[in-house]
Design a protein that fits this description.
Cytochrome_P450_fam2; alpha+beta; two-stranded antiparallel ribbon; metal-binding
Length: 490
């Protein structure tokens, strides 16, 4: 038979199979747009603004609907009620981690962020316990953050009020805090190794939010056979893991099981305790991946929020002036801010919440999956189905936050000016997969931002009306735009 005919028949069969597979499940799954063969609904998604595409589709199909990203059905949860019902009311079933092909290829099912089942439970339990033992939520970690805030201020002073891009300095500060927990040491801001690590991390976040990575995650077959920026992620992570490996080996050589110095030591001790267990999850490879997870999660989200925060404070000088006034009244100029101050600073607390709400840093969170078959709102969702939760739809809910597209700290203040909590505030997601480092991130944001504003006035190099806070990409991550700022000593 002619090879061309064989090819045409084969492609036709593939198309028919794809159509059959997609249509056969649609009577059970929630409604959604009709998918194309192989491509699914990829052409109905604006890759430059994925969260807005989900909002547009929810207006047609409701708060729970199905998308095909390639040939894979994905159930989307849009709006507070749907997200809460799934992640909190049915938290155990929706606590699985969904498919995320490019990062999955990096982690190989290890670590804590992308793992599932017993491995995830063991790694998360160990991570939370160890972080608490090393001060998470305690005065000891607060002292570390305060010290790093002072180091950050000294570096900002070295700019001598000249225009600067704050990206690197704001990345170094939270990175040093997590490094002190993992490696027991911080880096000098001019350390070349430190610079390389943070640059690779920053680059990976931008690539993960790019159009090409969305294509790769929808069509995983491309990952192995096509060139592209996903290979740069693999190279960057390999380089970073090589560094972690060297640090772990140094720890092994100087380990004192009776006196653990940091997170790595605690894991190595646990490995020794589990040596006789053939099913142990505590392996050398698991440790490298866990360190990679903690390093990335403990650095990039906080640093990006700080960059966004300073940009928004530049753009809204009236807000900045009120924060300065509250800092002067509650803290003054002669001591470092501390967490105890927060309860006396409702406006600053509202500003920090509004920054996180407004920037919507991780718009669709990480993908979830259902651990078992479930009937959800009269729909049948089979075990293993990937779930996307639109955090944008919760953080920008117009009923809870009037004029959600406007930056307004009043969203978190009552009529008497007191701080007002909201169940809709979930930038760290919610339920069993909520960010393990939420407490540390909140502490860092408060202490870093108040310490900066205690010591500096912020000055824009262009008219504040011309400042644009629109993210440069808005896929997996809302990547803040670059800008220049002057730090003028108070």
């Amino acid at each position: 038979m002619d090879p061309v005919v064989v090819l045409v028949i084969s492609l036709s069969c593939l198309l028919l199979l794809s159509l059959w597979r997609q249509r056969s499940g649609r009577g059970k799954l929630p409604p959604g747009p009709m998918p194309l063969p192989i491509l699914g609904n990829i052409l109905q998604i604006d890759a430059k603004n994925f969260p807005q595409s989900l909002t547009n589709l929810s207006k047609v199909y409701g708060p729970v609907f199905t998308l095909y990203l390639g040939m894979r059905p994905t159930v989307v949860l849009h709006g507070y009620e749907a997200v809460k019902e799934a992640l909190i009311d049915h938290g155990e079933v929706f606590s699985g981690r969904g498919s995320f092909p490019v990062p999955d290829r990096v982690s190989k099912g290890l670590g804590v962020i992308l793992t599932n089942g017993n491995r995830w439970r063991e790694m998360r339990r160990f991570t939370l316990m160890t972080l608490r033992n090393f001060g998470m939520g305690k005065r000891s970690i607060e002292n570390r953050v305060q010290e790093e805030a002072r180091c950050l201020v000294e570096e900002l002073r070295k700019t001598k009020s000249s225009p600067c891009d704050p990206t690197f300095l704001l990345e170094c500060a939270p990175c040093n805090v997590i490094c002190s927990i993992i490696f027991q040491n911080r880096f000098d801001y001019k350390d070349q190794c430190f610079l390389n690590l943070t640059q690779k991390l920053n680059e990976n976040v931008k690539i993960l939010s790019s159009l090409w990575l969305q294509v790769c995650n929808s069509f995983p077959a491309l990952i192995d056979y096509f060139p592209g920026s996903h290979r740069k992620i693999f190279k960057n992570v390999a380089d970073m893991m090589q560094y972690y490996l060297e640090k772990i080996k140094e720890h092994q050589e100087s380990l004192d099981i009776n006196n653990p110095r940091d997170f790595i030591d605690c894991f190595l001790i646990k490995m020794e305790e589990e040596k006789g267990n053939p099913q142990t999850e505590f392996t050398f490879e698991a440790l490298v991946n866990l360190v990679n997870d903690l390093f990335g999660a403990g650095t990039e989200t906080t640093s990006s929020t700080l960059r966004y925060g300073l940009l928004l404070l530049l753009k809204h000088p009236e807000v900045t002036a009120k924060v300065h006034e509250e800092i002067d009244r509650v803290i003054g100029r002669h001591r470092s801010p501390c967490m105890q101050d927060k309860s006396s600073m409702p406006y600053t607390e509202a500003v920090l919440h509004e920054i996180q709400r407004y920037v919507d840093l991780v718009p669709i969170s990480l993908p979830h999956a259902v651990n078992s078959d479930i009937k959800f709102r009269n729909y049948f969702i089979p075990k293993g189905t990937t779930i996307i939760t639109s955090l944008t739809s919760v953080l920008h809910d117009s009923k809870e936050f009037p004029n959600p597209e406007k930056f307004d700290p009043g969203h978190f203040l009552d009529k008497s000016g007191k701080f007002k909590k909201s169940d809709y505030f979930m930038p760290f997601s919610t339920g069993k997969r909520i960010c393990a480092g939420e407490g540390l991130a909140r502490m860092e944001l408060f202490l870093f931002l108040t310490t900066i504003l205690q010591n500096f006035h912020l000055k824009s190099v262009i008219d504040t009306k011309d400042l644009d806070a629109t993210p440069i990409v808005n896929g997996f991550f809302s990547v803040p735009p670059t800008y220049k700022i002057c730090f003028i000593p108070v």
